[in-house]
Amino acid sequence: MAIAGDANLRCFPQPNPVDAVRWLPTVSSLRRFAAVAVHDPDSSSSAIEVHALNPGPNLLLRSSHAIPSRISALRFSPTPQKPLLAAAATSAGSLHLLSIDPLEGSIDSELSVGDIGFSTGAVADVDGQAEGREWVSVGEDGRVNLVVVGDGRLEWRRVFDSKGLVEYSAVRWASPAEFATGGLGFGLQWWDQRKPGGAVAHFKGNWARGNTVGMVHSIDIHPSRKHICVAGASSGTVFAWDLRWQHRPLLLSGVSTGDTVQPASESEVWEVRYDSHIQPSSVGTGPTRILPVMMCSEDGILAVLQQGEEPVELLAEPCAINGFDIDPQNPSDVICALEWEMIGILPRSKETSTAS
Fold it and tell me: What is this structure's pTM?
């Protein structure tokens, strides 16, 4: 594995475990904020905190909003706007939509949905459309729900219910009508709201070693290549699924039947994101070209994967990296949630943008 050698990680110890971190979409170049999902095991309480990134950098808590149960996923609507909309899913089966002032970092209001008809288990993931008016959520109970911001309330409808036969753990919009989901058995599904009744495409492939049942933990879809989904899963597996060749997924990290790629990790890959900071290498050109992908893992690895190249290790921590986010306005900056009750910020140098 290639080593980037970037020793600029700045760690900020926190009083409680950090479950998720996200950069706030920037509407002003003078102010930068990060949202953090925290959990206090002593009081069994959870909250969304907004921290300001000050020169140095330093993190300064600007606001905090209590959430009634542990937060399982945290997402922002991708388009910078005022106010910003953030969705927090919980392990108790509720979904909370927060309105955040992007200039002050204050959390101004909340809408929520959590009735028993919405979910009978943890809401594993949620993702929002560009303007934040429409969200899709998936759960461990096999339910896929569409949530729409109405007049002072959240309205929702069931897209699909597997009756517990399928467990979903990740979801991502691809277009205003299409989204992808991932879950048990390294499975991926493609949904089109113009074609109701269930997923329109499926991928099933257990790449786990031995008798372990693999799980897709995270997926991402690039805005310019909406037909390609990348997935992070068990046993260090990261792969790309192209709708044009649905039965020939491309392995970026890990081991599969008849195919081996140097793994960046041998444990659970908790999150994957396309990395716009890295310039794609010349390897893997053509219609199946996969853009650079960043991943983090249970064994403390943060790395960049490129098709046909060795993984580039950015961090190797003594604890799990449970999640990360790449600043969409400043993609050289990465924020991480470290298992040892810390937030890490990694500013990358210009040299790493051309690493291969």
Answer: 0.92
CA 131 from chain centre, in angstroms, equals: 18
On whether the CB atoms of residues 301 and 269 are closer than 8 A, the answer is: no
Of 240, 242, 212, nearest to 227 by C-alpha is 242
The CA distance from 131 to 121, in Å, is 28
- Cα–Cα distance between 191 and 343 in angstroms, integer? 35
Report yes or no: 171 and 138 within 8 Å, Cβ to Cβ.
Answer: yes
Q: Is the dihedral of CA 247, 250, 253, 256 positive or negative?
A: positive
φ/ψ of 17, rounded to 5, equals -60, 145
Measured between alpha carbons, how far is 271 from 256 in angstroms, rounded to an integer? 20
Mean pLDDT over all residues of the chain?
Answer: 89
**How do residues 80-114 score in pLDDT, each as one tens digit?**
777 889 999 999 999 999 999 988 999 998 999 98
> What letter does residue 258 receive in the DSSP assignment?
T
Closest CA to 67 of 97, 103, 106, 29: 97
- Ordered structural domains, the chain, with CATH: 1-16+175-356 (2.130.10.10), 32-166 (2.130.10.10)
Burial state string for 107-138 with b = 16 or more CB within 10 A and e = fewer than 16: beeebebbeeebbeebbbbbbbbeebebbbbb
